[in-house]
Each structure stands twice: as C-alpha cells, then as structure tokens.
Write a structure and sequence with these properties.
This protein has about 140 residues and is mainly α. The chain has three domains: about 1-40, no CATH class; about 45-100; about 100-139. It is built from four helices and two strands; from the N terminus they run ββαααα. Strands 1-2 form a two-stranded antiparallel ribbon. It is rod-shaped and about 125 Å long. The mean pLDDT is about 80.
Length: about 140
Amino acid sequence: MLFRRNKPVVQQADDLDNGSLAWGLILGFLFGAVAALLRAPQSGAATRAQLTGQLNETVSEAGQTVRKQIETVSDSVNETGQIIRKQIENVTETVADTITPADPIAESMAEGKAAARRRRLELGIDSESDDAANPRLNV
C-alpha cells in the first residue's frame, strides 16, 4: 500500500471528499485566469475584434462551400432528370411503335360479319356457298 503521512490510500480518498478537491479546482481556475490576463499579447477589445474577424471569415467560407455544394447537387439532379426524361421518351416511342391503334370501323365490320355468320348458321343457311357466290361479302 502507498502511504502518505502514514495514512493508507483509502483514507486519502476520504480527505478529497472533504472538499479539498473542490478548493484545488477553484484555486487552479483562479490562478489560470490571472496568468492568462497577465500574459495576453493584446487588449480584450483587440482580441474580440480579431475573433470577430476570424468568425466572419469562417462563416463566409462556409457559405461559399455550401453554395458550391448546392450548385453541384443541383447540376447533378438536372442531369439525372434529363436522362430520365430521355429514357421515358424512348420507352414511350417503343410502346407506341409496338401497339397499333385499333380501327373502330374495321372492328365494327368484323363484329357485324361474325354476327351475320352466326345468324346464318342458326337459320341453316350455308355461309360458305354464299360467300363464294357473293365476293363482296368477303372483306
């Protein structure tokens, strides 16, 4: 065990609990503050002015950096948007080319012919002989 004034280390910890640690911190703070005031290279007003200037410069640089980053992100988003628009246009053109629009008149005529054939079959009229005899019905 370590001894200080013939006291064990455990009892030394009890001495710190009695307020000597707090007094040591307070005195250290006070001596440090006095030393800083005595060793300061310039007056308080000059120091504040220097700190204010440095702060303004740092804020200005940060603002410029943020503006550059915003421009970079904005340009990237615009480029990506243009690429997506082109891809959508390509897909739209491809779909439009593959899908043939229906002709409503042709569809109506085909439905009419199919209905006529069904009706002739119901009535027992031979539709093949009629189609061969009347070529205008075959469209």
